[in-house]
């Protein structure tokens, strides 16, 4: 029995690892010509400096909690150098330059108390199995009414900076968080999949209703014309890729699957790296928070020649500015020169007119890249478990994995690793002992019976 795994990101690699360990013939098809790792991707910056920055994932989350993040043993095994981030080591600067840091610290403490209250409220609501509400509603119920740039900077840096969406669009009752040489010949790089024929009967007709045993193998076609067949296929493509038309599924996926794919959010999170010929900023904190006049426009700056990256970036003057959501989309659409000019202007607002011109800028475009179409998944407000079941459920010989298929840790590398491991294990069971049952729901019924309004019935 053979299995094709589509994509060599964290989830695809871990699914393949389980299959290979069980003695199953597995092939991974990956579009990139020279790299595995998907949304974990390093690039040299500044150019020709011998230093590397991570365009995608760079944090191992929740190391202080009592659950082990599966990334940690890997990092330890391979001796990867990593440093803790101190998110409180920050300076606040307003659009007109410096700011009284004690006022900033007081406001930050007030917001910490609000998030504490919101979290208690969320615990109570989850215990009562209450229908979720937006985090914005939760903040207001806890007494948070942001009134000026400093409040918005605190809110953005505490929330949007992690989740890439605003509290208005985000659920208050988020599922669990962590406390807060793959060998070779079965990995095929430079293989951009264009079509997946996943249900074909022996006579060539659609076999949606046939038992798996009476179907032909799955057929995967790549852009270079090569064709691969196997008994099973596991898609590890991102939710963003599934939401677009870069890959064709033949026959078309069933309506319940399509609906679930389009019902979840693919967030936009963009890390802009910018380097300067000299250091002009006077703050020595790890972060600088900017009191932007337009919410989220250049609110968070991470300083690479401050601790803990100081040694690695010695002699370089690099800042990392993160943007999310609509600002990230806007930045992707415009030229890097325009973005550079906008960032330099904000730095001049903070540090005066002597800010030099930037020597280099690096703007990743995760949202328009056809291999990703976004950064990571979030659950929209009002989402229900049945829709998630439909997102994950395999159909005949076609299986789905990826960070978006992790119920507890979607959006993260550890979510991708745990999801890939589970999918790999389940396909092994399917081949060796009979397929595990995955629930799915052809129609998700309205539980409250209130949405079918006729004319004049709204009152
Ligand atoms: C900017 C950014 C910051 C992040 N920060 C963090 C963080 O700090 N910590 C954390 O835990 N997580 C973070 N994440 C999320 C994390 O990177 C992802 O959740 C995780 O890497 C997803 O892994 P995956 O295997 O599900 O998908 P992917 O990594 O997307 O893997 C899918 C693979 O499929 C390939 N592919 C796509 N289309 C095709 C095709 N047509 N043919 C062949 N191959 C194809 C892709 O090239 C890719 O290799 C971040 C993500 C981004 C973008």
UniProtKB/TrEMBL annotation:
Enzyme Commission no: 1.4.3.-
Amine oxidase domain ranges (all copies): 11-123, 187-427
InterPro entries the record matches: Amino_oxidase, FAD/NAD-bd_sf, Flavin_amine_oxidase, Flavin_monoamine_oxidase
Keyword Oxidoreductase: yes
Single GO biological process annotation from the record: polyamine catabolic process
GO molecular function, a single term: oxidoreductase activity
Cofactor(s) in the UniProt record: FAD
Keyword entries, A-Z: FAD, Flavoprotein, Oxidoreductase, Signal
Record-listed FAD binding positions: 11, 30-31, 205
Alphabetized PANTHER family for the sequence: AMINE OXIDASE, FLAVIN MONOAMINE OXIDASE
Record family assignment: Belongs to the flavin monoamine oxidase family.
Name this polypeptide is given: Amine oxidase
Species the sequence originates in: Rhizoclosmatium globosum
């Amino acid at each position: 029995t053979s299995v094709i795994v589509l994509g060599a990101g964290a989830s695809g690699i871990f699914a393949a690892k389980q299959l290979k360990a069980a003695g199953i013939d597995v092939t991974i098809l990956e579009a990139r010509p020279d790299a595995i790792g998907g949304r974990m991707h390093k690039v040299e910056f500044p150019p020709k400096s011998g230093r590397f920055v991570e365009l995608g994932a760079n944090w191992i989350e929740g190391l202080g909690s009592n659950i082990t993040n599966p990334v940690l043993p890997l990092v330890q095994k391979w001796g990867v150098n990593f440093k803790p981030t101190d998110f409180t080591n920050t300076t606040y600067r307003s659009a007109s330059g410096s700011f009284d840091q004690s006022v900033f610290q007081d406001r930050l403490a007030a917001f910490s108390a609000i998030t504490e209250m919101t979290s208690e409220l969320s615990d109570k609501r989850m215990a009562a199995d209450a229908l979720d509400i937006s985090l914005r509603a939760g903040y207001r119920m806890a007494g948070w009414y942001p009134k000026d740039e400093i409040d918005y900077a605190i809110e953005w840096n505490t929330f949007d900076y992690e989740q890439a969406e605003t509290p208005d669009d985000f659920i208050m009752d988020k599922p669990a968080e962590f406390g807060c040489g793959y060998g070779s010949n079965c990995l095929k790089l430079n293989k951009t999949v264009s079509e997946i024929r996943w249900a074909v009967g022996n006579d060539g007709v659609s076999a949606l209703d046939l038992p798996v045993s009476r179907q032909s193998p799955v057929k995967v076609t790549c852009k270079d014309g090569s064709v691969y067949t196997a008994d099973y296929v596991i898609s590890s493509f991102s939710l963003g890729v599934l939401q677009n038309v870069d890959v064709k599924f033949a026959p078309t996926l069933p309506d319940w699957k399509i609906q679930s794919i389009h019902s979840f959010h693919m967030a936009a999170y963009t890390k802009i790296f910018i380097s300067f010929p000299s250091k002009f900023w006077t703050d020595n904190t790890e972060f600088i928070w900017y009191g932007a006049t337009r919410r989220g426009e250049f609110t968070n700056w991470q300083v690479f020649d401050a601790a803990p990256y100081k040694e690695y970036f010695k002699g370089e003057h690099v800042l990392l500015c993160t943007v999310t959501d609509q600002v990230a989309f806007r930045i992707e659409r415009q030229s890097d020169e325009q973005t550079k000019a906008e960032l330099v202007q904000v730095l001049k607002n903070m540090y005066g007119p002597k800010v030099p011109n930037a020597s280099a800028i690096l703007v990743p475009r995760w949202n328009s890249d056809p291999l990703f179409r976004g950064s990571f998944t979030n659950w929209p407000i009002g989402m229900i478990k049945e829709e998630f079941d439909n997102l994950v459920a395999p159909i005949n010989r076609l299986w789905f994995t990826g960070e978006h298929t992790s119920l507890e840790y979607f959006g993260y590398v550890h979510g991708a690793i745990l999801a890939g491991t589970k999918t790999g294990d389940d396909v092994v069971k399917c081949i060796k002992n009979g397929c595990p049952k995955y629930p799915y729901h052809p129609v998700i019924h309205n539980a409250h019976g209130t949405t079918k309004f006729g004319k004049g019935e709204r009152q």
